[in-house]
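Dear colleague,

Thank you for sharing your sequence with our group. We've completed the structure prediction you requested, and as agreed, I am returning the results in plain text so they can be pasted directly into your records. Please verify that the sequence below matches your submission; if there's any discrepancy, let me know and we will rerun it promptly.
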Amino acid sequence: MKVGILETGLKDAAESDLQFLEETFEYARVLDERGYSRIWFSEHQEFGPPWKSPEILLPVIAGITNTIKVGAAGLLLPLHNPLRVAQNFKVLGSVFQDRIDLGFAKALTASDLIGKELAYNYKQLESTYKHHETILKIHQLLHNSYRDEETGESIMVQPLGVVPPEIWVLSSSGNNYDFAAKNYFNYSVSLFHQQYNDKMLEELKVRIDKYKEEVALNGKKTQVNIAIAVICSDNKDETEKLIRKTDKVYFHINKAGSVEEVAEYIHKLKIYLGIDEIILNLIGSSMPQKTQTAHQLADHLLK
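Please find the predicted C-alpha coordinates below.
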Protein backbone atom coordinates (compact mmCIF):
# COMPACT_ATOMS: atom_id res chain seq x y z
CA MET A 1 0.00 0.00 0.00
CA LYS A 2 1.25 3.46 -0.90
CA VAL A 3 0.61 6.33 1.48
CA GLY A 4 1.54 9.95 0.84
CA ILE A 5 1.20 13.18 2.79
CA LEU A 6 -0.39 16.50 1.94
CA GLU A 7 1.00 19.42 3.96
CA THR A 8 -1.26 22.47 3.98
CA GLY A 9 0.85 24.54 6.37
CA LEU A 10 -1.93 24.87 8.94
CA LYS A 11 -0.15 26.07 12.08
CA ASP A 12 -0.75 27.82 15.37
CA ALA A 13 -0.34 31.59 15.33
CA ALA A 14 2.04 31.38 18.28
CA GLU A 15 4.56 29.29 16.34
CA SER A 16 7.15 31.28 14.41
CA ASP A 17 7.33 30.90 10.65
CA LEU A 18 11.02 30.02 10.75
CA GLN A 19 10.50 27.32 13.36
CA PHE A 20 7.62 25.87 11.36
CA LEU A 21 9.72 25.76 8.19
CA GLU A 22 12.58 23.99 9.99
CA GLU A 23 10.14 21.47 11.45
CA THR A 24 8.61 20.94 8.01
CA PHE A 25 12.03 20.02 6.64
CA GLU A 26 12.51 17.48 9.42
CA TYR A 27 8.99 16.16 8.80
CA ALA A 28 9.88 15.55 5.14
CA ARG A 29 13.06 13.69 6.12
CA VAL A 30 11.06 11.40 8.42
CA LEU A 31 8.46 10.70 5.74
CA ASP A 32 11.24 9.83 3.31
CA GLU A 33 12.93 7.50 5.77
CA ARG A 34 9.68 5.75 6.72
CA GLY A 35 8.75 4.97 3.13
CA TYR A 36 5.91 7.38 2.42
CA SER A 37 5.31 7.65 -1.32
CA ARG A 38 5.12 11.44 -1.71
CA ILE A 39 4.75 14.73 0.08
CA TRP A 40 2.63 17.42 -1.51
CA PHE A 41 2.42 21.07 -0.52
CA SER A 42 -0.73 23.09 -1.16
CA GLU A 43 -1.06 26.73 -2.09
CA HIS A 44 -3.07 28.96 0.23
CA GLN A 45 -2.72 32.69 -0.10
CA GLU A 46 -4.76 33.73 2.95
CA PHE A 47 -4.00 31.60 5.99
CA GLY A 48 -1.20 30.10 7.95
CA PRO A 49 1.70 28.66 6.01
CA PRO A 50 5.01 30.54 5.76
CA TRP A 51 5.01 29.64 2.06
CA LYS A 52 2.20 30.85 -0.17
CA SER A 53 3.10 29.21 -3.44
CA PRO A 54 4.67 25.79 -2.74
CA GLU A 55 6.94 26.06 -5.78
CA ILE A 56 9.79 27.54 -3.77
CA LEU A 57 9.77 24.66 -1.26
CA LEU A 58 10.08 21.80 -3.72
CA PRO A 59 13.81 21.97 -4.59
CA VAL A 60 14.64 22.36 -0.90
CA ILE A 61 12.58 19.33 0.14
CA ALA A 62 13.75 17.23 -2.79
CA GLY A 63 17.34 18.17 -2.03
CA ILE A 64 17.25 17.00 1.60
CA THR A 65 15.43 13.72 0.87
CA ASN A 66 16.31 10.70 -1.21
CA THR A 67 13.39 8.85 -2.77
CA ILE A 68 10.09 10.42 -1.75
CA LYS A 69 8.21 12.23 -4.53
CA VAL A 70 7.74 15.95 -3.93
CA GLY A 71 5.02 18.06 -5.45
CA ALA A 72 2.71 21.04 -5.56
CA ALA A 73 -0.91 20.02 -5.00
CA GLY A 74 -1.97 22.17 -6.04
CA LEU A 75 -0.98 25.35 -7.67
CA LEU A 76 -3.90 27.78 -7.80
CA LEU A 77 -3.54 27.80 -11.55
CA PRO A 78 -5.53 30.98 -12.33
CA LEU A 79 -2.86 32.91 -10.40
CA HIS A 80 0.09 31.49 -12.34
CA ASN A 81 1.55 32.13 -15.78
CA PRO A 82 1.47 28.86 -17.77
CA LEU A 83 4.82 29.41 -19.47
CA ARG A 84 6.55 30.26 -16.20
CA VAL A 85 5.09 27.14 -14.59
CA ALA A 86 6.37 24.97 -17.45
CA GLN A 87 9.82 26.57 -17.37
CA ASN A 88 10.27 26.19 -13.61
CA PHE A 89 8.90 22.67 -13.31
CA LYS A 90 10.82 21.38 -16.29
CA VAL A 91 14.06 22.41 -14.60
CA LEU A 92 12.90 20.82 -11.35
CA GLY A 93 11.96 17.63 -13.16
CA SER A 94 15.35 17.42 -14.83
CA VAL A 95 17.30 17.92 -11.59
CA PHE A 96 15.13 15.56 -9.53
CA GLN A 97 14.17 13.00 -12.14
CA ASP A 98 10.95 11.04 -11.55
CA ARG A 99 10.42 12.77 -8.20
CA ILE A 100 8.49 15.95 -9.00
CA ASP A 101 4.69 16.11 -9.15
CA LEU A 102 2.75 19.01 -10.63
CA GLY A 103 -0.84 19.28 -9.43
CA PHE A 104 -3.38 21.88 -10.49
CA ALA A 105 -6.30 23.38 -8.59
CA LYS A 106 -8.88 25.72 -10.06
CA ALA A 107 -9.51 27.88 -6.99
CA LEU A 108 -8.78 31.59 -6.69
CA THR A 109 -7.72 33.47 -3.58
CA ALA A 110 -10.38 34.95 -1.34
CA SER A 111 -8.38 38.18 -1.06
CA ASP A 112 -9.04 40.60 -3.92
CA LEU A 113 -5.91 42.53 -2.99
CA ILE A 114 -3.63 39.49 -3.20
CA GLY A 115 -5.35 38.31 -6.36
CA LYS A 116 -4.90 41.70 -8.01
CA GLU A 117 -1.18 41.69 -7.25
CA LEU A 118 -0.68 38.13 -8.51
CA ALA A 119 -2.78 38.34 -11.67
CA TYR A 120 -3.14 41.57 -13.61
CA ASN A 121 -6.61 40.60 -14.89
CA TYR A 122 -7.77 39.09 -11.59
CA LYS A 123 -11.22 40.72 -11.64
CA GLN A 124 -12.00 39.05 -14.97
CA LEU A 125 -10.56 35.63 -14.11
CA GLU A 126 -13.76 34.17 -12.69
CA SER A 127 -15.55 34.63 -15.99
CA THR A 128 -12.67 34.25 -18.46
CA TYR A 129 -10.34 31.62 -16.98
CA LYS A 130 -10.46 28.21 -18.71
CA HIS A 131 -8.99 25.56 -16.41
CA HIS A 132 -8.80 22.56 -18.73
CA GLU A 133 -7.37 24.60 -21.59
CA THR A 134 -4.68 26.01 -19.29
CA ILE A 135 -3.64 22.56 -18.07
CA LEU A 136 -3.39 21.34 -21.66
CA LYS A 137 -1.32 24.39 -22.57
CA ILE A 138 1.16 23.67 -19.77
CA HIS A 139 1.34 20.01 -20.82
CA GLN A 140 2.12 21.09 -24.40
CA LEU A 141 4.76 23.53 -23.19
CA LEU A 142 6.40 20.85 -21.05
CA HIS A 143 6.54 18.51 -24.05
CA ASN A 144 7.46 21.23 -26.57
CA SER A 145 4.32 20.68 -28.64
CA TYR A 146 2.71 24.07 -28.04
CA ARG A 147 1.94 26.35 -30.98
CA ASP A 148 0.33 29.76 -30.75
CA GLU A 149 -3.11 29.70 -32.41
CA GLU A 150 -2.70 33.11 -34.03
CA THR A 151 0.89 33.01 -35.27
CA GLY A 152 1.65 29.30 -35.39
CA GLU A 153 4.90 29.97 -33.55
CA SER A 154 6.22 27.42 -31.08
CA ILE A 155 8.05 27.84 -27.78
CA MET A 156 10.89 25.52 -26.80
CA VAL A 157 11.03 25.03 -23.04
CA GLN A 158 14.41 23.90 -21.75
CA PRO A 159 16.06 21.71 -20.63
CA LEU A 160 15.58 19.63 -23.76
CA GLY A 161 15.74 15.84 -23.86
CA VAL A 162 14.37 15.29 -20.36
CA VAL A 163 11.17 13.70 -19.07
CA PRO A 164 8.89 16.43 -17.65
CA PRO A 165 7.27 16.10 -14.22
CA GLU A 166 3.99 14.24 -13.93
CA ILE A 167 0.76 16.25 -14.08
CA TRP A 168 -2.00 15.64 -11.54
CA VAL A 169 -5.55 16.88 -12.05
CA LEU A 170 -7.00 17.68 -8.63
CA SER A 171 -10.67 17.53 -7.78
CA SER A 172 -12.91 17.73 -4.71
CA SER A 173 -15.89 16.07 -6.38
CA GLY A 174 -14.62 13.65 -9.01
CA ASN A 175 -16.59 15.45 -11.69
CA ASN A 176 -13.63 16.07 -14.01
CA TYR A 177 -12.47 12.45 -14.14
CA ASP A 178 -13.31 12.31 -17.86
CA PHE A 179 -10.95 15.19 -18.68
CA ALA A 180 -8.12 13.54 -16.73
CA ALA A 181 -8.74 10.15 -18.36
CA LYS A 182 -9.06 11.53 -21.89
CA ASN A 183 -5.66 13.23 -21.61
CA TYR A 184 -3.98 10.48 -19.54
CA PHE A 185 -3.31 12.76 -16.58
CA ASN A 186 -2.95 11.39 -13.07
CA TYR A 187 -6.00 12.02 -10.93
CA SER A 188 -6.43 12.93 -7.25
CA VAL A 189 -9.71 13.57 -5.41
CA SER A 190 -9.87 15.35 -2.07
CA LEU A 191 -12.54 14.10 0.34
CA PHE A 192 -12.00 16.82 2.93
CA HIS A 193 -13.15 19.89 1.02
CA GLN A 194 -16.76 18.81 1.43
CA GLN A 195 -18.64 16.46 3.74
CA TYR A 196 -18.68 13.09 1.98
CA ASN A 197 -21.53 10.72 2.86
CA ASP A 198 -22.01 7.09 1.80
CA LYS A 199 -23.92 8.02 -1.36
CA MET A 200 -21.22 10.47 -2.45
CA LEU A 201 -18.54 7.84 -1.85
CA GLU A 202 -20.50 5.39 -3.97
CA GLU A 203 -20.73 7.95 -6.79
CA LEU A 204 -17.00 8.65 -6.47
CA LYS A 205 -16.22 4.94 -6.75
CA VAL A 206 -18.16 4.84 -10.04
CA ARG A 207 -16.20 7.83 -11.37
CA ILE A 208 -12.84 6.35 -10.34
CA ASP A 209 -13.76 3.03 -11.99
CA LYS A 210 -14.72 4.87 -15.20
CA TYR A 211 -11.46 6.81 -15.10
CA LYS A 212 -9.40 3.63 -14.78
CA GLU A 213 -11.40 1.83 -17.46
CA GLU A 214 -10.98 4.62 -20.02
CA VAL A 215 -7.24 4.90 -19.38
CA ALA A 216 -6.75 1.12 -19.56
CA LEU A 217 -8.85 0.89 -22.73
CA ASN A 218 -6.27 3.02 -24.50
CA GLY A 219 -3.34 1.03 -23.15
CA LYS A 220 -2.08 3.85 -20.94
CA LYS A 221 -0.85 3.84 -17.37
CA THR A 222 -1.70 6.60 -14.93
CA GLN A 223 -2.11 6.95 -11.18
CA VAL A 224 -5.18 7.75 -9.11
CA ASN A 225 -5.41 8.52 -5.40
CA ILE A 226 -7.63 10.19 -2.86
CA ALA A 227 -6.74 12.67 -0.13
CA ILE A 228 -8.34 12.55 3.31
CA ALA A 229 -7.99 14.58 6.50
CA VAL A 230 -7.44 12.57 9.68
CA ILE A 231 -6.84 13.18 13.37
CA CYS A 232 -5.00 10.53 15.37
CA SER A 233 -5.77 11.11 19.03
CA ASP A 234 -7.34 9.24 21.96
CA ASN A 235 -8.03 12.54 23.70
CA LYS A 236 -11.57 13.77 23.06
CA ASP A 237 -10.84 17.37 24.11
CA GLU A 238 -7.79 17.56 21.84
CA THR A 239 -9.76 16.10 18.94
CA GLU A 240 -12.55 18.66 19.34
CA LYS A 241 -10.00 21.46 19.51
CA LEU A 242 -8.36 20.28 16.28
CA ILE A 243 -11.73 19.99 14.56
CA ARG A 244 -12.48 23.61 15.49
CA LYS A 245 -9.07 24.56 14.10
CA THR A 246 -9.83 22.97 10.73
CA ASP A 247 -13.32 24.48 10.60
CA LYS A 248 -11.66 27.89 10.20
CA VAL A 249 -10.13 26.81 6.88
CA TYR A 250 -13.13 24.75 5.75
CA PHE A 251 -11.52 21.32 6.09
CA HIS A 252 -13.81 18.42 6.96
CA ILE A 253 -12.30 15.62 9.04
CA ASN A 254 -12.83 12.25 7.38
CA LYS A 255 -11.73 10.19 10.37
CA ALA A 256 -10.76 10.93 13.96
CA GLY A 257 -9.70 8.30 16.45
CA SER A 258 -6.78 6.25 17.66
CA VAL A 259 -3.92 5.41 15.32
CA GLU A 260 -5.30 1.89 15.01
CA GLU A 261 -8.81 3.14 14.15
CA VAL A 262 -7.50 5.58 11.54
CA ALA A 263 -5.27 2.90 9.99
CA GLU A 264 -8.24 0.51 9.76
CA TYR A 265 -10.37 3.23 8.13
CA ILE A 266 -7.63 3.87 5.55
CA HIS A 267 -7.38 0.18 4.69
CA LYS A 268 -11.14 -0.16 4.24
CA LEU A 269 -11.37 3.01 2.13
CA LYS A 270 -8.53 1.83 -0.10
CA ILE A 271 -10.23 -1.52 -0.71
CA TYR A 272 -13.67 0.00 -1.29
CA LEU A 273 -12.49 2.57 -3.83
CA GLY A 274 -10.03 0.20 -5.49
CA ILE A 275 -7.08 2.58 -5.42
CA ASP A 276 -3.39 2.01 -4.81
CA GLU A 277 -2.57 5.15 -2.86
CA ILE A 278 -4.08 7.39 -0.19
CA ILE A 279 -2.82 10.87 0.62
CA LEU A 280 -3.13 11.94 4.25
CA ASN A 281 -3.70 15.47 5.43
CA LEU A 282 -2.58 14.90 9.02
CA ILE A 283 -4.22 17.35 11.41
CA GLY A 284 -2.19 17.88 14.58
CA SER A 285 -1.47 20.41 17.28
CA SER A 286 2.10 20.94 16.04
CA MET A 287 4.53 19.71 13.42
CA PRO A 288 6.42 17.49 15.94
CA GLN A 289 3.09 15.93 16.89
CA LYS A 290 2.29 15.25 13.23
CA THR A 291 5.76 13.75 12.79
CA GLN A 292 5.06 11.39 15.67
CA THR A 293 1.72 10.43 14.12
CA ALA A 294 3.44 9.75 10.79
CA HIS A 295 5.80 7.35 12.59
CA GLN A 296 2.87 5.56 14.25
CA LEU A 297 0.82 5.26 11.06
CA ALA A 298 3.86 3.95 9.18
CA ASP A 299 4.08 1.09 11.65
CA HIS A 300 0.54 0.05 10.66
CA LEU A 301 0.40 0.96 6.99
CA LEU A 302 3.92 0.70 5.60
CA LYS A 303 5.17 -2.57 7.02
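Summary note from our side: The mean pLDDT is 92.

Kind regards,
the structure core
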